[in-house]
Amino acid sequence: MTLKTDCLGWLLNAEVLLSALTLWLPKPKRLWVWLTLLPLSATTIILRWTAVQHPPMRNLFEAFMWLPLLLVCMTLVSALRDKHDTSRLDAALGVIIAFPLAFVFSAAEGQLPPVLQSPLFVPHVLGYMIAYVLLARSFILECFHQPDASRENAAWGFAFISLALALGSIWGNEAWGAYWQWDPKEQWSLATWLIYAAYFHLQHKRRWRVTLLGVGVLFILLTVTWINLSKLFSGMHSYAGA
Q: How many CB atoms lie under 10 A from the CB of residue 13?
């Protein structure tokens, strides 16, 4: 665990601090913190994009940088459109997301590999990032007895993970000549999709909803960390952990 002390690092540290602070603030003040986090998280992406001269999605560090921004947007939509106060639950999720960004993942810069220089690169990765935040929120909201908000997040998350999976298949055919290669990352992404497909068939029972949403989040965590980083699962997506 290393403290990042450059400009980008301090912005990431501020994201962790503000997310943690939001856990203890009363409701009116939490909204102001989220409004502060919106330009802050956007600035981190702009700084990184300027530094590396490509969309910052090359590895786990860069892909995770999008999650706080996406989470802030979803929190504000819930508050302003749906009148759902999810700010404290989202703050807990924000700490979990921002902590590895600030203190665990390496911020080393690198060039974009040729295979990633595709028009499908950004929508494919961003689709997964949006899906992962929505599905993580769905689990947390279900655990804290907000079933309607949980179901809406799960529905949107499933739509985005389906889109990202389809785009990845099209991209794979363009890059490697086949829509499906049974790469470890592909297999785990498909397994995650099947878990959420099962959720929509069994959502009428809360026990199944909680269980499947929890297993789905576990599969997401395994896919973006262990499957990406472990050398036991080397494959065509191995660059994602670089």
A: 17
